[in-house]
Amino acid sequence: MTVAPRPLRRTAALSLAAVLLTGCGLSEELDREANPERRTPTPGATPPDIRTERPVTPPSPVTPPSPSAPRCPESGLTTSPGMVTAAMGLRAMSVTLTNCGDGVREVEGYPDIRVRGLDRQLFDVTVLKGTEPVTTMDDPGPRRIALKPGESAYTSLVWRYSAVDAATRRGSGVYVEIGPAKGAPRSTIEPEGGLDIGETGMLGTTAWQRSPSDDDGPRRPRPRTP
Fold it and tell me: Contacts for 187-190 with beta carbons within 8 Å, 24 or more apart?
């Protein structure tokens, strides 16, 4: 076995240390060339490739919209049709006028009515103030009625049956435009089954009268057949 002299071993050790130091410097040099903008991080500073996370604010709960109340027109009055009563070719139906506003509304006299067919064409119907000659019915006559919010009045409509085409509904008054008085805004109602009045029939009406209270039970017009 050959043993290197002591001076040679010391020289080899120094050479190895130099190579190791040179290797560390070479690695750093390669890093600088690959990333020339790289800077030595300052102690305590956040590295550039680490982002500071911000706390996430949970979304506010969305409150579902509440169902809207039925719309009250500018006139403060709504109209609704009642059931149609039929007997021996005679028809009768009540229409209720309700104060849906905040103040007091007054009605007086007879309603103002127009009848239209399924195609929205106007019928040549004669609207009467009173129920004769269609039939005989109690009519209180014109009187002023003050309606507080929530109160209502009604009128009764009577007519005679006229031939109606079941397929095309020709002759059936599908849409009834009614106002509290002549010149007042009209609202449109759609009576169930329509008014089988024909296009040239007669429509009798009664003057507005105060609706009975709920304790008086349901109200239906009862025409008297002569």
Answer: 187/73, 187/77, 187/78, 187/79, 189/79, 189/80, 189/81, 189/95, 190/81
